[in-house]
Design goal:
It contains eight helices and nine strands. It is of the alpha/beta class. A nine-stranded mixed sheet has the order 3-2-1-4-5-6-7-8-9. About 50% of the residues are buried.
């Protein structure tokens, strides 16, 4: 058996709910072998981020070289990058290794509200990484920052902002509406040919730590298995919705708990 392989390039979450840890759990739950390149270490838990230690850019390069030179990476998910030097190193190595199926989650702020991307690095992200991505997956706040506009209040504004991000050079944009209002969480997949709508009933829970990381890594897992982009997004949304619905079964930490990535595999609480 040859297992599909996906790579996550992201920060480490010491609390285990987001970042590298969420990505690897997602890959495993979806039947994909996961490799990792760590861009930063965070001291955090369900209550918030206590500190961030950036991995030197040259060591990010060393990790990427080690992984890409040996493993057949079918999809690459990119998460927290924190600073411009790291973004530039990642971009250069994506080119060097002709990385396929790049899914960029433009992580800017943790679920707790703590900043994870330096303000000066936003321009570097737009210039260096968005044009190299197959898919960019901003939430409402991230999309607003990327286009310099107020947070979208409806689907028309979501689509307009997605189209503006698309113009930066990526192949597709998934504007995530999980932080919006209403009984349904609506995501819009915007490509040059138009927009596709994905919906799920909104779940009443505080345990949503790592949702964005999980969605983007689930999409990367689908792409690694050879799924078309639209199908990979649909399967990923279904997986994340199930993981949110089961999140309360875990009862982890005192704040915003993680999703239940293995809800299909672990016995019911």
């Amino acid at each position: 058996m040859t297992a599909p392989v996906a790579l996550t390039i992201a920060g480490s979450d010491s609390g285990g709910g987001a970042g590298i840890q969420a990505d690897l759990k997602t890959f495993s739950a979806l039947g994909v072998y996961g490799a990792s390149v760590i861009t930063a270490l965070t001291a955090q838990n369900t209550l918030g981020v206590v500190g961030v230690f950036d991995v030197p850019a040259e060591f990010v390069t060393a990790q990427m070289e080690a992984v890409y030179s040996d493993l057949a990476i079918a999809a690459t998910k990119i998460g927290m990058l924190s600073r411009s030097e790291t973004i530039e190193a990642v971009a250069a190595n994506l080119d060097r290794h002709a990385a396929k199926n790049v899914v960029l989650d433009p992580v800017m702020v943790a679920a707790s509200g703590d900043p994870l991307l330096r303000p000066d690095a936003v321009a570097t992200l737009k210039r260096q990484l968005i044009p190299r991505a197959l898919l960019v997956t901003p939430n409402l706040a991230e999309a607003a920052v990327l286009v310099g506009a107020p947070v979208a209040a409806d689907e028309a504004a979501m689509q307009k902002q997605g189209e503006a991000i698309l113009a930066l050079g990526c192949k597709a944009v998934l504007v995530k509406g999980g932080h919006g209002k209403g009984p349904q969480a609506v995501d819009l997949l915007i490509e040059k040919g138009g927009a596709r709508r994905y919906t799920a009933d909104r779940v009443d829970t505080k345990n949503t730590h790592g949702t964005g990381c999980t969605l983007s890594s689930a999409i990367a897992a689908g792409l690694a298995k050879g799924m078309p982009l639209a199908d990979a997004v649909a399967a990923a949304k279904d997986f994340v919705t199930g993981a949110i619905k089961a999140a309360n079964e875990l009862s982890i930490g005192k704040g915003r708990g993680p999703l239940h990535h293995f809800y299909s595999w672990w016995p019911k609480a």
